[in-house]
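Table S4 entry, 20 kDa chaperonin, chloroplastic.
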Amino acid sequence: MCDSFAMAFVGGCVVGACKPGQWKVCADARADLGSTGPRHRGAVRRCAQHQPCMTVINGRDFGDKTLAPVGNFVLIELEKRKNVSSGGIVLSGAVKTKRRTGHVLAADDGSKFALSGTPMPMDFKIGDRVIFSSLGDYRGTQVKIDGKDCIILSASDILGTAPDEEAGLTDVNNLQPAADKLVVFVDKLSESTVGGILLSSNVKRTSRTGVVVNVGPGKLLEDGSREPIGVQVGDRIMWQEYAGNEVDTGKAGDKYFVIRGGDVLATF
């Protein structure tokens, strides 16, 4: 079923306090995972009364197996569908009905660089709340695990991490872009031309300039260093048409994009 995504099933479960058949990543498991097993591999499952947990994937029972992504893939439990957010960051506009936020359930240790075979560590860990790009809708694979809506996608499609909505995220600076991505406050477009002609609302225009408000650590290189993005917070930049993903902090009139460093055309 999962050969095309190089998935693996890992057996075993840990005695705990949730009902058989329930997939759960507990807070204490997130904190202790680094000392009790692989840092990323597989979600921790806790079962009541020493009974084996039954994992049901897309309606098929796989017994006590757990779904563990391999290489650069990440398993994410999607957040419940919302049109607006009371404090967290969600994608805005027509895509608000799309769920592009969730929590990492499982992730491998990462892939390897093709030429040298040097390990490429995973940037995300179990429990991280992540936001992924619109490309995830097409390149990701949605699965239902124990009744929960999940998605398997490449780590490269994840835009960044953000605090839980319950924490009351009101500042876009709390959105931490991943790898070579950056967050930009988009310049507002004028409603008239230089000559004073009022533009029709039917004319679709998109601003491709803005001010950088947050920058990721950079693309990981084979020697373990990070490639500088080439811009810093406060720079005004121009980027390629159709690049980036819009995010919304709930502030009327304010527009933010997450774009890749490679899509930046110029600074000024």
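The first helix runs from residue 27 to 36.
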